[in-house]
Specification:
9 strands
Length: 219
C-alpha cells in the first residue's frame, strides 16, 4: 500500500480516525500549550536573572556594621576651638568615662537670632541629657527650649540654684524634655534637659557648677 493510500490513524481516545477539524483543533491546542510552557519558562528565567542581579548588588554594595557604634564626640575639643566667639565662656561638663557624647556644636545664625552652645550626652543608663547654653536669650527663647512647660520649683546643686521643669508625669508628649533644669548666669541661659533620672541630672549639673559660678551664677 503506497503512503498516499495509508489509512487514517485511529485515535485511542476517540476510537476512530480524527476528522480534519479535530486534527486542526488538536494541533492548535498543542501549539497553545507549547506557547504557555514557553511563557512560564521565560518568566522563571527572568525571575532567576533578577534574583541573580539583586544578589550581586547586595554583595558589592558596602554596608555598615549594624552592631558598630559611632565614635564619641569630643565636645571638649570642639568647645576649645569655639571659645572666645561668644560673650560668655562655653560650658564644658567634666564627666566620668562611662558618659559619652553623640553631638556638640556652636549654633549661630539661627532663625531665632540666639547663638547657642549644645552638647548631647548619653548617660551610663543609656538615657539622654542635653545641655544648651544660649547667649543673650530672652524668656521666650527659654520657654521654647522647655516646650513652654511650667516651672515646678527650684533645686540647688553644689551651690547653684536651678529652676525645675518636671514633665515626667505629664500626659502630654514632651519629647526629650521630660525633665529640665534652667539657670541664668552672666549673659547665658543654661538648660539641662532630657530623659534621665534625678541622679544623672545631678551629676551633669554638679559638673557645671564651678563654671556657672564663674559667670556669676552662684547662690
Amino acid at each position: 500500500m503506497s503512503p498516499r493510500n495509508k489509512p487514517p490513524v485511529v485515535v485511542a481516545e476517540l476510537g476512530r480516525p480524527e476528522t480534519p477539524e479535530e486534527t486542526a483543533a488538536r494541533k492548535a491546542q498543542n501549539s497553545a500549550n507549547h506557547r504557555n510552557r514557553q511563557t512560564i519558562n521565560n518568566l522563571v528565567y527572568s525571575l532567576l536573572a533578577t534574583l541573580a542581579i539583586v544578589a550581586v548588588i547586595v554583595l558589592i554594595v558596602p554596608r555598615g556594621n549594624p552592631t558598630a557604634t559611632k565614635p564619641a564626640v569630643d565636645y571638649t575639643s570642639i568647645a576649645q576651638q569655639a571659645q572666645g566667639s561668644e560673650p560668655d565662656r562655653l560650658l564644658v561638663p567634666k564627666l566620668p568615662s562611662t558618659w559619652s557624647s553623640n553631638s556638640a556644636e556652636l549654633r549661630t545664625k539661627t532663625p531665632d537670632n540666639v547663638d547657642s552652645w549644645y552638647i548631647g550626652l548619653i548617660t551610663p543608663k543609656q538615657q539622654y541629657i542635653g545641655i544648651t547654653q544660649g547667649f543673650g536669650a530672652n524668656d521666650s527663647w527659654v520657654a521654647d527650649q522647655v516646650n513652654k512647660s511650667m516651672i515646678k520649683g527650684t533645686r540647688q546643686i553644689d551651690g547653684v540654684t536651678w529652676d525645675v521643669y518636671d514633665n515626667r508625669t505629664s500626659s502630654s508628649d514632651n519629647g526629650n524634655v521630660a525633665y529640665a533644669l534652667v539657670n541664668r548666669s552672666g549673659d547665658s541661659s543654661i538648660i539641662v534637659f532630657g530623659t534621665a533620672d534625678d541622679g544623672e541630672f545631678r551629676t551633669v549639673a554638679a559638673s557645671l557648677a564651678d563654671q556657672i559660678r564663674s559667670l556669676g551664677g552662684g547662690q
